Amino acid sequence: MSPPSFLTGNQAIAEGAIAAGCRFYAGYPITPSSEIAEVLSGRLPEVGGVFVQMEDEIASIGAVVGASLGGLKAATATSGPGFSLMQENIGFAVATEIPCVIVDVQRVGPSTGLPTKVAQGDIMQARWGTHGDHPIIAIYPSSVQECFDLTVRAFDLAERFRTPVMLLSDAVVAGLREQVEVRTISRPAVRSGPGVEPAVYRPFDYSGDRPPPLAPFGTGYRYHVTGLIHDERGAPTEDPALVARWWQYMRRKLDAHLDEILDWEERSLEDADTVVVAYGCTARAAAHAVDLARDEGVPAGLLTLRTIWPFPDAVIDRLADRASRFVVAELNLGQVRAEVERVVRGRAEVAGLHRTDGLQLSPVQIVAELSSKRPVA
Amino acid sequence: MTTTPVRDHVWSVLHDAFEHVAARHGEPVVLSSLAHGLGPGHPHTRYGFVLGPPGRLVAMAVGLRAALPRSPLVLVGATDAFTIGTNHLIHAARRNIGMTLVLLRADVFDAGESVMLDRAEPARASVAADIAPRPSPLAWAAALGATFVARASLRAPAELADLLDEAVTAGGFSVVGVTNDASLPTGVQSRQEWPEFFGTYRAWSDSLPRTRTRRPGPGAPRPPDDAPARVEVRIAGVGGQGIKLGGTVLSEAAGAQGLWATQIGDYGAATRGGASSVDVVFGSRPITYPGADHPDVRVDLSQAAADVADVAAQVLVADDRLTAADSALVLPLVAIARERTGGQLSAGIVSLGAIAAITGWPSIDALAGVASRKVPERVAAANVAAMREAYDLTGRILEGRR
Fold this sequence. Notes:
heterodimer; A: alpha/beta; eight-stranded mixed sheet; five-stranded mixed sheet; 13 helices; globular; B: alpha/beta; seven-stranded mixed sheet; six-stranded mixed sheet; about 40% helix; elongated
């Protein structure tokens, strides 16, 4: 364990990747994510890994998928415009169950938007950016310590569930510099074999609720990898019964393990009548706002989401039974608010505090919303 | 999944060639956007096989090559299979990334298959002559610097296998065209010798020291009993005034005294002289919101910053060159920086002396200690002296006000 030192959020993500065993990074620079690439271009060769700057973001995610198939833990980082370009091969990685980590440091979009002011507008892109009803995991740190810790977690989840994991960040968390304990955990840098003879290895076994380990290519395991829906050996299939089983498995492999995936933090929620829901940089302002509101006698609390997808329905559901009001604070026009409304189902008022002008929500703005009179029923 | 008999024949010939390569180089990984051709129900392939999006396979092969330094990587496609993502192909070729492209010429497919690049022609011959000279992928590959370029024929499977083996042996980016047209010559077309990308990368990275010790941090925050709960500081000016560095020294000095601290900024580039500002928040409690929306001290180093200094700062500090609010504590911060260090690059550091005199935290000695590490050695002493001068001057002025 090393004592805390000061790092930015981006630097902590890079150090977290090294600690998680990431040994391959392919990317194309884009603010506000570029510092992650900058740090890894120095750190990866020091630990025997490979950093490669690719010709674009499409190539970056392609190379990440290839490296992961070859047995390396692999990642890329980008911002909204690059994240859009990556969606094709993110879908390929979902369909073929190839683990990888994609960092999206959000700025205002669409398109070039406001380079490079802060936004949280890619929440739904992280969920549905590629096509099809695929499962996905997206997690979101709000501090530099969480940038480190959740990056390690992102790689662990990607390996365990053989899925791309979206590690969301934003321009504020990326540039925020604060104390962080760079833990001396270290995960294996090379994926171990599946533990069964090649002859009986079923790389896409979908009989259970967890994926089998992915055997690296080049180690005697020869199998077929395709974005076509496939049988358990990897051969394409259009057999409706098999296709249905594949879909059931793809849903089950995350839904059956929400206890391992969902992660959140509660602040002053024990007796809260108003629940603020926030994430990323907005959670920092919201925490300050809740403290200020409590000082004024307003019974407010904060739910900080660290797992965004799958959405923590059960957590919101539990709170909706006893709170009378939710305030969702986010730097978009209501992407998470709509999810909260879906779960709350009218049991409590759901208000949104939204901002998309490139500036953060301030604690004062949030306090004003918390202290405001509720509409008369 | 339907496969034509001709395509199955192609795969059959290629498979024998892959076996030949495997015997000499180890099992290959094959990537293609064309269906495998071994037929439905085939239990598993005899080599690692990726059936993926056309063109993107080149990028995937780049990652595979990084992970598998020695495995033969073979990409199989019709010559138009790489027109989606030709940029990937160009970059892989120009970097000499070790992979072998097997380019199937249109004539190996049945007539009526998808239109292939090397036989697409406008309907009118006169137009074709004017605008569509027959493309030559192999000449193009040679021009890109491919390590090895050859043409093989389906009609000569043994030669095809040998040429594929030579392409893999060459070690870099290589191309083997495959035709079924008996009139075309086969054999090696060009060779160029230069180092493979990841081989060179690994030789370089292997020469680096494998361990780097991290400089230990100041330890977990253990705030002193008399530390303030939360202090907000904003320094605003233009790029080139060392504002980001000032924020770094301030936050780390607070950390060195056992406080929690955050730094966040909007940093202008020195060359552009754009607006630049930093917010530092420190105190005895973990910092929630890192913004200094209601600063205990705000320092303005440029007129633009002073003009918008509308926040209700507890103490407003302005450089003496500026037209500032009446309430501002006016200090010659830039002048001290220029006098001591020859420029205004250290104005941010000088400001810290004033901040320490006003808030009492962090101590001037803690600031000096961090500054002497963070400021380039050549000017560190001058910066620390300038910061101490601002500290002493501010202290005298505050003393005079009491």
